[in-house]
Structure formats: C-alpha cells, structure tokens
Automatic annotation (TrEMBL):
<dbReference type="InterPro" id="IPR045031">
    <property type="entry name" value="DHP_synth-like"/>
</dbReference>
<dbReference type="GO" id="GO:0046872">
    <property type="term" value="F:metal ion binding"/>
</dbReference>
<keyword id="KW-0289">Folate biosynthesis</keyword>
<comment type="similarity">
    <text>Belongs to the DHPS family.</text>
</comment>
<dbReference type="InterPro" id="IPR000489">
    <property type="entry name" value="Pterin-binding_dom"/>
</dbReference>
<keyword id="KW-0479">Metal-binding</keyword>
<dbReference type="GO" id="GO:0005829">
    <property type="term" value="C:cytosol"/>
</dbReference>
<dbReference type="GO" id="GO:0046656">
    <property type="term" value="P:folic acid biosynthetic process"/>
</dbReference>
<keyword id="KW-0460">Magnesium</keyword>
<dbReference type="GO" id="GO:0046654">
    <property type="term" value="P:tetrahydrofolate biosynthetic process"/>
</dbReference>
<comment type="subunit">
    <text>Homodimer.</text>
</comment>
<dbReference type="InterPro" id="IPR006390">
    <property type="entry name" value="DHP_synth_dom"/>
</dbReference>
<keyword id="KW-0808">Transferase</keyword>
<dbReference type="InterPro" id="IPR011005">
    <property type="entry name" value="Dihydropteroate_synth-like_sf"/>
</dbReference>
<protein>
    <recommendedName>
        <fullName>Dihydropteroate synthase</fullName>
        <ecNumber>2.5.1.15</ecNumber>
    </recommendedName>
</protein>
<dbReference type="GO" id="GO:0004156">
    <property type="term" value="F:dihydropteroate synthase activity"/>
</dbReference>
<feature type="domain" description="Pterin-binding">
    <location>
        <begin position="15"/>
        <end position="268"/>
    </location>
</feature>
C-alpha cells in the first residue's frame, strides 16, 4: 500500500512517522515553541534528521477549548513554514493540518503534498480543492467542535459510530471526485471522546481495516495518556511511544507524533518483528 502525488511515492508497507510542527502559540503540548519561521524550520530539521518522513504543519490549535483563528492568521503561520521546508527538502512529504479551503489551496500552491483535516472536508470549498489538486487527504472523525468537544461526548457504540462516519465521508469524497486511493483515515483519538472511548478505539483498530485504506494514528501526548497517568503532556513520551507501537501491531501505517526519534526506534523494532513472523 502506498500514497502518491504526481512526483513522489511513500510506501506504507512499513510504518511511517509524521512529525508534528505546530506554528501556534496555544497548542496543548508545545504551543509557542515554534512560532517564528527560524524556530519552525529548525524543528522540522531535527524531526527529519530523526527519521520523520512526513512533516505535519498546523497553524490553528485544535486542543479542547481552543479559540478559532482567522484565515489570514492561519495563512501567515502556515505558508512561510511550508514554503521554507519545501525549498530545503524537495523530497520530504509535507502535510498541512487545516480545515479551511483557502489554507489548503495556498499550501498546495507552495508545495504541500497532503491535507490532514480534522473536519473531513466538511468546510465550504474543501472537497473541491482536494479533488482538483488530486493529492492525498486524511479524513478524521470528531464529535462536535474543538471548543466544546470534550464537555460531554456520548456514543451508543463508539466503534460503530466512528466507522459509519468515515464510511459516509469516503462516499462523499468519491462522489466529489477524490480518488479512493488518495484517502487516509484517522479515528480521531481525543476528539470528542472520553478516556474509555479512546482506549476502546485503540483496542479495536482492526475494525477500520475493512475499508482497505491507510490508517493515520494521532495519540501523542494526548489526554488519554497524561490525564490517565497524572502527568504533564510533555512528560508522556514513553506512553505515547507505547501506544503508537500498539497501534502499529494492529496494522496502522502513519503515526503523528511529537517524539520522532523515539517513535522511529520503536517502529524499527515493530518492522523487524513483522518481517520475522
């Protein structure tokens, strides 16, 4: 299984690590650390050197309770970073974490390879931008909106409801002209889900392989780890790597993480085990 653009291919026959680059002042774990272009590029450098094959650039925090930002502000945070990374690293995959069609379009124009959308292309114009660009997109499940999603998330059956949502969004995307082979799925850990919901999803990831599409997993430093363990998010590296490894053993292919070096090492061990089964 691969993901492709017009000029590059990324094999998903082994786990791929996506390094998180938040150019925001208010992200839950590293907000404010990489807001300048110099800081952002230096962090991208370090993650690429550590083995990240994808850099995920985000200009709007989606932590619980986060405030929305304007299109202009998000563009000012994202576009210079994407441009600088693309100029320095022509072959690295660049993902942009956004729901706004204009941010998607301008990011693609300066070299983004993949759109990572927590709202699964439900915002105005988003479907059309991705369909026209013919690039991969990650569709994520979220109950509610970031500002209120963790107030009282409820499900009758979290696995079935996440599955049904993703099935419906795949159909909408295909109808809009997005090729199925360009779709990646994310069950949305921490997005409108309790601690129990999150661990139930992690224990049942195999359900989502029924789509025959790549799975992107974002567990790094999230509340299902730091609240459960009673730690600060930045102190949850070991827990984050353990959960990524658990997801890898269930066949997930892409791992969105803060701690690239440690996750890359874990994935090398997983790959070695899998090749010797």
């Amino acid at each position: 299984m691969d993901i492709r653009t017009s000029n590059k291919t990324l094999s998903l026959n082994e786990p791929q690590v996506m390094g998180i680059l938040n150019t925001t002042p208010d992200s839950f774990s590293d907000g404010g650390r990489f807001v300048s272009l110099k800081q952002a590029l230096a962090h991208a450098d370090s993650m690429i050197q550590a083995g990240a094959t994808i850099i995920d650039v985000g200009g709007e925090s989606t932590r619980p309770g986060a405030a929305e930002v304007t299109v202009e502000e998000e563009l000012n945070r994202v576009i210079p970073a994407v441009s600088a990374i693309r100029e320095k690293y022509p072959d690295i995959w660049i993902s942009v974490d956004t729901s706004k069609a204009e941010v998607m379009q301008q990011s693609i124009d300066v070299g983004a390879d993949l759109i990572n959308d927590i709202r699964s292309l439900q915002e105005p114009g988003a479907l059309a931008v991705v369909a026209k660009a013919d690039i991969p997109v990650c569709l994520m499940h979220m109950q509610g909106q970031p500002g209120t999603m963790q107030e009282r998330p409820e499900y009758r059956d979290v696995i079935q409801e996440v599955y049904t949502f993703l099935k419906d969004r795949i159909a909408v995307c295909e109808e809009a002209g997005i090729r199925r082979e360009n779709i990646i799925l994310d069950p949305g850990f921490g997005f409108g889900k309790t601690l129990t919901h999150n661990y139930h999803l992690l224990a049942n990831l195999n359900t989502f392989h029924q789509f025959g599409l790549p799975l992107l997993i974002g567990l790094s430093r999230k509340s299902m780890l730091h609240q459960f363990l009673g730690k600060h998010p930045a102190d949850c590296m070991v827990a984050s790597v353990v959960c990524a490894a658990v997801a890898a053993t269930q066949g997930a292919q892409i791992f969105r993480v803060h701690d690239v070096d440690e996750t890359v090492e874990a994935m090398k061990i997983i790959s070695m085990i899998q090749t010797n089964q």
